[in-house]
Design brief:
The longest helix has 14 residues, at 2-15. Strands 1, 2, 3, 4 and 5 form a 5-stranded antiparallel β-sheet that branches. This protein has helices at residues 2-15, 61-71, and strands spanning 26-31, 36-43, 76-79, 85-90, 96-108. Strand 1 and strand 2 (36-43) form a beta hairpin. The radius of gyration is 18 Å and the shape is elongated. It has 113 residues and is an alpha+beta fold. The chain is built from 2 helices and 5 strands; from the N terminus they run H-E-E-H-E-E-E. It has one domain.
């Protein structure tokens, strides 16, 4: 009986958590003057993020940044920060509640408009 209760309590506790697994990344900020695009995963579900955001679809990030850069006249984008930056509200356990996990991309080449 105790084991069954433990399983139920654990399942309920875990159902109230968020994960970045397979979630899309998006443009969080864009600085045309500096040629820098910030792309990331935004956690706005009001649920604690149980991972560090590394399971989001980061493979799409360079393409997203390159599209923004090309609108400004640049040719491509390159990852500026290899590590992700986490910003936002955290709960008492240090888990991200509302905020973002981001990386910056530098626009390169081209005839800037």
């Amino acid at each position: 009986m105790k084991k069954a209760l433990l399983v139920v309590v654990t399942a309920i506790a875990l159902s109230g958590c968020a994960s970045s697994s397979g979630k899309p990344v998006e443009v969080v900020n864009a600085d045309r003057a500096g040629g820098v695009v910030t792309v990331g995963y935004v956690n706005s579900e009001n649920l604690p993020l149980m991972d560090d955001g590394s399971k989001a679809r980061w493979g799409d990030a360079v393409g997203i940044a390159t599209r923004v850069c090309s609108k400004w006249g640049y040719e491509s984008a390159e990852e500026l920060t290899p590590h992700a930056r986490t910003e936002g509200q955290r709960n008492v356990y240090g888990q991200l509640m509302n905020g973002s996990v981001t990386k910056q991309y530098q626009c390169l080449g081209g005839n800037v408009k």
